[in-house]
Design brief:
By secondary structure, the chain is mostly helical. The chain has a single domain, classed as Orthogonal Bundle (Arp2/3 complex 21 kDa subunit ARPC3), CATH 1.10.1760. 72% of the residues lie in helices and 2% in strands. The chain has 8 helices and 2 strands; from the N terminus they run H-E-E-H-H-H-H-H-H-H. It has helices at 9-25, 42-70, 83-87, 91-95, 97-110, 115-140, 145-152, 157-188; strands spanning 29-30, 39-40. Strands 1-2 form a two-stranded antiparallel ribbon. It starts with 8 loop residues before the first helix and ends with a helix.
Length: 189
């Protein structure tokens, strides 16, 4: 999809639905007894958003999700909300969703048919999310970077790898189906 295309009803609808999916998946989480950071399905929602919308509109969906949670709608992990979540010790991981969406979305958009490069983009995006979140956690909780890495990254790698696999398995056919619907809708307009 051409990211420079004009904003259409279809684009607005896709962004709204992607944002809604992130808002539904984001609160679904569980805490690990060894970490202050919960495992959330928010990253999976971000991956779906960039598959459906590409890097630009997928990132807009991500920003809308963060804004919705910031103003008080309980869409963050564990059905929480508010500025305290974004500014608290684990907020760096949520802010890290932005570079995650940009990087993963770029690879998915740029390398349309090259699934291994989609995975590379998701890995690089997740690493950027981890880096921002770990630095923020270390600073906020007065931890060493290593301690923050052990608490906020290492336990999450297997779950995030599964999220990437699910995103590829579901994202590619959904992207194709949405494209076909978008083309049919544009012909009808």
């Amino acid at each position: 999809m051409n990211q420079k295309a004009k904003i259409t009803t279809v684009t607005i609808t896709k962004v709204a639905l992607s944002t809604a999916i992130i808002c539904v998946l984001g609160p679904l989480s569980f805490a690990l007894p060894i970490s202050p950071v919960p495992i959330s399905l928010g990253i999976l929602g971000i991956f779906f958003a960039v598959y459906v919308n590409g890097w630009l509109w997928g990132t807009v969906s991500c920003l809308l999700y963060l804004l919705i949670g910031f103003v008080g709608v309980p869409v963050f992990a564990g059905f929480t909300a508010g500025a305290g979540n974004l500014l608290g010790p684990t907020g760096g991981y949520m802010i890290g969703y932005i570079p995650l969406a940009l990087i993963a979305g770029f690879f998915i958009s740029k390398f349309e048919k090259k699934i291994p490069l989609h995975i590379v983009g998701m890995i690089l995006g997740t690493i950027s999310c981890y880096a921002l979140g770990t630095a923020w956690l270390a600073f906020s909780d007065n931890m060493s970077f290593t301690a923050a890495l052990l608490a906020g990254v290492i336990p999450f790698i297997p779950a995030d790898a599964v999220k990437m696999a699910v995103a590829v398995a579901v994202g590619i056919p959904v992207r194709s189906a949405v494209r076909k619907m978008s083309l049919n809708s544009n012909v009808a307009e």
